[in-house]
Amino acid sequence: MRLHFTAATLAVFVLTLISARPAYGEPQMSSQRQAAILGRVLAYDRGMKERAGDSVVVAVLYRMGNPGSETCSNQMFEGFRSVERFVLHGLPFKVIRLTYDAGGVWRDTLRSDGVDAMYVCDGLDEELDTIASTARQRKITTMGAREEFVTRALAIGVFASDDKPVILINYAVSQEQGAVFGSELMRVATVINHPH
Predict the structure, then answer these.
(1) What is the pTM of this model?
(2) Quick one: CA dihedral 127, 27, 186, 179, positive or negative?
(3) Which of 57, 101, 132, 188 is the 20 to 30 A CA-CA neighbour of 115?
(4) What angle do CA 74, 134, 28 make, to 5 degrees?
């Protein structure tokens, strides 16, 4: 049985679990918890349903041969797999693993698999601008494994502060990638690069 993310349940979940703080760090929580929160964040994206096809597809992007990147991809793939029982924007939720390659096959897979959101693992620091540019062109919401990834070029991330998860949103990047986050989320998230 699939469970639905609704605005009411999302609001309760976020307000009870998220503490918006200016200080944040690297993820210090289980991959399942991080993936569950990111799934709920994606449910606040009012533009997602228009961009998605028959399902909301999340790709976990990593570098093969990089131990840290491979560990990240294994953990987050399993974490997002635990979210597949949910329905997002009335659509099934699906996760795939995707290897970054200099030849650009990963870009073709984004298109052929209809990827709507992408989690970027460790080990891709030098490729971050290329990844962000591709995501911007294809309107794919990006999620970062590290806080630096979000402050630099990606849209969202979930990090730990005082043992509590903090949602970090790079507003300018999220807008460029087509995300339209609801005010309920923006009130409880730490938002950077927001025009005042």
Answers:
(1) 0.86
(2) positive
(3) 188
(4) 35
